[in-house]
C-alpha cells in the first residue's frame, strides 16, 4: 500500500470510527479521516497493508491477537507429537516426525517475526502466553495416547489447519499473508504424512486398524472445534472479515473441512464418529451432528485434559532455554558492534571459522 504511512502522519489523536480503535464520540479530524480513507480503499482494492502503512489501532490489535494465538499454537503443538519421537516404530517414521516437529518450531518463528512488524516483541508475546493472557489452539490440550494419534493429528488437525490457513495467504496484512504461504506448503506435507500413516495402520493388523479408528474417534470432534465458535457466537469474525484478515467465517471453513474429510475417511477405511453425517443433496454439502460447545468452552477456560501440562512444560522449556537466548544475544552483540567489525578482524575470523 502506498500513500499515507505511519511515519508521515502522527498516530491518531481523535477518532473517526469505533473500528479505528479511537475514542468513540470524539470528532474526527481531517487527517484521521484521510488516513482511514486510504486504509479502507487499500483493503477494498485487495492491496496489502504493510508495516509502515498507517492502520487503525483496532486492526493492529486484532492482528497481534490472532497472530500471537497462531504462533503460540505452533510451538505448543510441538508437545503432543514430540511425545512420540522416541517411540516411533521405525527410523523412517522417526525422521519424518522429527522434521515435522521442527517445522512447527519454524512456523512459530515466522509468525512471531511477522507479529514483530506490528511493534510487539517475541518476549512480550511469550510472557503473555506464559501468564495465561493469550490463547493457543484448543486442540493441543488433548493427549496423544497411541502412535495412531500422530497420524490422526496429521490428517485431521493439520488438515483443519490447512483449511483455515490457506485463505490467510490472502490476508490483508502483508507479513502475515507471506508467512502463511510457506507454512501452508509445509502443513500440506504434514497432512499427507498423517494420512499415509493412518492408511498403513488401517490396512494393517486388526489391532492396528482398531488403534487408527480409536484415534480418529478421539480427534474428530476437537478438530471441528479448532475453527472456533459458531458464527453467531464469534465475537471477532465480522470485523476481521470486513478488514480481510479472515476471508471466511468459522462455520464456512468447518463445513469445507467436513466435506473434504468425509470421502478421505472412506478411502482410509475408517469411520467418522458422527452418525448424523450424510450428504445433503439440496445444500450440496454434508450435514453433520451437533458440536459439544460446552467442552470447547471448558478447554478455553483451562479445564481441558492437558492445559496444565502444556503450559507448565512451555514455561519450563522457556526457563531452561534462557542460556541459549543469552548466548545468542551475546554473540549477536559482539558481532554487530563497530569495534569488533573493524578493529579486530583477526579475532573475528578466528571465532567464526
Ligand atoms: N482455540 C482457542 N481459542 C479459540 C479457538 C480455538 N480453536 N477458536 C476461537 N478461539 C477464541 C478466540 O481467540 C476468541 O477469544 P479472544 O477474544 O480471547 O481472543 C474467541 O474464541 C472467539 O472466537 P472468534 O471466532 O471471535 O475468534 P477469531 O475471529 O480470532 O477466530 C480462529 C478464531 C478461527 C482460530 C482465528 O483466530 C484464526 O483463523 N487464527 C489463525 C489460525 C490459528 O490460530 N490456527 C491455530 C491452529 S493450530 C496450528 O496452526 C498449528 C498447526 O501445526 C496444526
UniProtKB/TrEMBL annotation:
Keywords linked to the UniProt accession: Oxidoreductase
Record SUPFAM superfamilies: Ferritin-like
Amino acid composition bias (Polar residues), ranges on this chain: 1-16, 336-345
Region Disordered: start-end pairs: 1-23, 331-353
GO cellular component, one term: cytosol
Keyword Ribosomal protein found: no
Record keyword Oxidoreductase present: yes
Pfam families, sorted: PaaA_PaaC
EC number(s) recorded for this UniProt protein: 1.14.13.149
MF annotations from Gene Ontology: phenylacetyl-CoA 1,2-epoxidase activity
Biological process (GO), any one: phenylacetate catabolic process
PANTHER family documented for this protein: 1,2-PHENYLACETYL-COA EPOXIDASE, SUBUNIT A, PHENYLACETIC ACID DEGRADATION PROTEIN PAA
Protein name: 1,2-phenylacetyl-CoA epoxidase subunit A
Organism: Streptomyces arboris
Amino acid at each position: 500500500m502506498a500513500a499515507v504511512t505511519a511515519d508521515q502522519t502522527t498516530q491518531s489523536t481523535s477518532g473517526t470510527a469505533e473500528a479505528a480503535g479511537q475514542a468513540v464520540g470524539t470528532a474526527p479530524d481531517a487527517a484521521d479521516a484521510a488516513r482511514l480513507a486510504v486504509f479502507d480503499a487499500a483493503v477494498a482494492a485487495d492491496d496489502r497493508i504493510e508495516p509502515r502503512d498507517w492502520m487503525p489501532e483496532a486492526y493492529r490489535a486484532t492482528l497481534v491477537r490472532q497472530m500471537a494465538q497462531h504462533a503460540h499454537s505452533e510451538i505448543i503443538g510441538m508437545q503432543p507429537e514430540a511425545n512420540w519421537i522416541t517411540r516411533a516404530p521405525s527410523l523412517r517414521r522417526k525422521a519424518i516426525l522429527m522434521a515435522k516437529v521442527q517445522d512447527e518450531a519454524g512456523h512459530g518463528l515466522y509468525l512471531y517475526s511477522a507479529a514483530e512488524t506490528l511493534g510487539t516483541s517475541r518476549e512480550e508475546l511469550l510472557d503473555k502466553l506464559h501468564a495465561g493472557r493469550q490463547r493457543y489452539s484448543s486442540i493441543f490440550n488433548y493427549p496423544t495416547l497411541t502412535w495412531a494419534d500422530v497420524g490422526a493429528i496429521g490428517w485431521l488437525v493439520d488438515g483443519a489447519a490447512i483449511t483455515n490457513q490457506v485463505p490467510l495467504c490472502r490476508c490483508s496484512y502483508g507479513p502475515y499473508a507471506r508467512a502463511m504461504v510457506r507454512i501452508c506448503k509445509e502443513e500440506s506435507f504434514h497432512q499427507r504424512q498423517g494420512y499415509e500413516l493412518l492408511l498403513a495402520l488401517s490396512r494393517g493388523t486388526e489391532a492396528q486398524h482398531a488403534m487408527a479408528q480409536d484415534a480418529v474417534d478421539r480427534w474428530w470432534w476437537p478438530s471441528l472445534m479448532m475453527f472456533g465458535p459458531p458464527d453467531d457466537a464469534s465475537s471477532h469474525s465480522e470485523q476481521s472479515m470486513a478488514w480481510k484478515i479472515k476471508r471466511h467465517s468459522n462455520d464456512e471453513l468447518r463445513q469445507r473441512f467436513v466435506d473434504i474429510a468425509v470421502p478421505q475417511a472412506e478411502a482410509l477405511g475408517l469411520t467418522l464418529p458422527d452418525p448424523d453425517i450424510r450428504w445433503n443433496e439440496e445444500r450440496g454439502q454434508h450435514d453433520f451432528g451437533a458440536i459439544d460447545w460446552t467442552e470447547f468452552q471448558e478447554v478455553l477456560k483451562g479445564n481441558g485434559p492437558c492445559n496444565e501440562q502444556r503450559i507448565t512444560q512451555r514455561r519450563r522449556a522457556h526457563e531452561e532455554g534462557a542460556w541459549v537466548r543469552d548466548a545468542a544475544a551475546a554473540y549477536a552483540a559482539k558481532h554487530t558492534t563497530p569495534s569488533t567489525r573493524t578493529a579486530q578482524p583477526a579475532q573475528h575470523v578466528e571465532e567464526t571459522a
